[in-house]
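User:
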Amino acid sequence: MHRSTYTILGIALLVVGAFYVGGAQGQGGAAPETPHKVGLIDMALVFKDYKKFEALREDLKVDVQAIAEEEKRFAETVDGERKKLESGTFKQGSPEFIEKEQAVTKMLAEFQAMRATNQKELLRKESKIYHTIYMEVQDAVERFCKAYKYTLVMRFNREELTSTDPQKLMQGLNRPVIYHQAEDDLTDSVIAFLNKSYGSTKAPGAAAAKPGKTATK
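Assistant: Predicted structure:
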């Protein structure tokens, strides 16, 4: 009985010992976790300095001007017909007057419908521009993250705080980023990469510049 008990106890100790040894070896041999590396980007500045965004906005301005001229011509036509109706050329209540009045009313309705349609179309085009640029910026940031091992990129405002404008000062006090190092700021590098890709048709996938404020355009 005693001998059997000692044998069982010995086996148990061996198993426990093997468990601790194996655990220690596993911990010692495990690959270290990748440390977090946080980057920052001023999205407002990226949109402002990205040449493609500027070009697309200029194209939109051309569309806006063309639509404005079209609406102006239509409005002048409607106004001319309305003035004819008010000039006394047609006797009020006569069939001619009623017909002209109905025509003016119809033209006004068409004008309002045209303006509403134009506004929706312009808004759709503007939204598409912002979506396109945002996706391109996101792609560029992803490239930087993969190339330089960033695990997280946050939006921030690079603009310096000023006490001369109380509203801006209060907005600045609510910024989520209180402190950062210069190399954490990917803004200039992303802008340079985007503009280089946009300006080059031969090498749209040019290699990303090293991030940091020193990697400017």
